[in-house]
Amino acid sequence: MNKSVSASNVSEMENESTPPNFPLYRPKRMREEDLPAEFNKFKDEKRELFTSFISTQQSQIQGIIDDLKEIQLTNYNIENSIALLTSQNEQFQQKIESLEGQTKKDREYILVLESKIEDSPRTSRKTSIKIKNVPKQERESTEDLINMILSLAKTINLDIESRDIKDIFRLQTKREGGGRNTPIIIELGSVILKNNL
């Protein structure tokens, strides 16, 4: 049998069978013609502001890009200059090392020459004879001096020949006229020959 629904039960039954209430009204966007003029003005101002901001940003970015390109070019030039200077520095170092080596060899050679020069007078003194008070002839030549020494050697019974004489000369003086009887220096071929004399 059908029973009628009591009042206390009605609210529960409504909740079970009746679909929930949803608002069916959706507000539509207003068309531009329907918008107030102030809003359109505000919108235009904002659009201009964004446009000018974007163009400013783009010009600044372009300026930064140009500056970066210039910096990159400068860096490239600096790197090339450093590479060139490094290469030249290496060449100069090689030249300096070469010159230092040559200088060292030259010093060693100079020392050898100095020692030879120091030894030379000693060696030549060992084989040299000085003869004093020999009258000087007019236009005296080396041959005249050799002949004079050979005749002197015959006089003292010394066996000497012209090939035994390495060098012969008369010392020069500082006085005007050259001095009449300056000493004669004879360099012989050996110390033994000098000792025999």
Annotate the secondary structure layout.
Elements: H1 7-17, H2 37-127, E1 128-131, H3 142-155, E2 165-170, E3 184-188, H4 191-196
Antiparallel strand pairs: 1-3, 2-3
What would your notes on this structure say?
Residues 1-19 have a biased composition (Polar residues). The protein is mainly α. The chain folds into two domains: 32-120; 132-196, no CATH class. It has four helices and three strands; from the N terminus they run ααβαββα. The mean pLDDT is 78.
In short:
Residues 1-29 are annotated as: Disordered. Helices cover 62% and strands 8% of the residues. It has helices spanning 7-17, 37-127, 142-155, 191-196; strands at residues 128-131, 165-170, 184-188.
What distinguishing features does this structure have?
197 residues, 3 strands
**Which whole number gives the mean pLDDT?**
78
The spatial strand order of the largest sheet comes to 1-3-2
Main sheet summary: 3 strands, antiparallel
Overall 3D geometry?
A: rod-shaped
What structural category characterises the helix and strand content?
mainly alpha
Give the N-terminus to C-terminus distance in angstroms: 181 Å
Region (Disordered): 1-29
Biased composition (Polar residues): 1-19
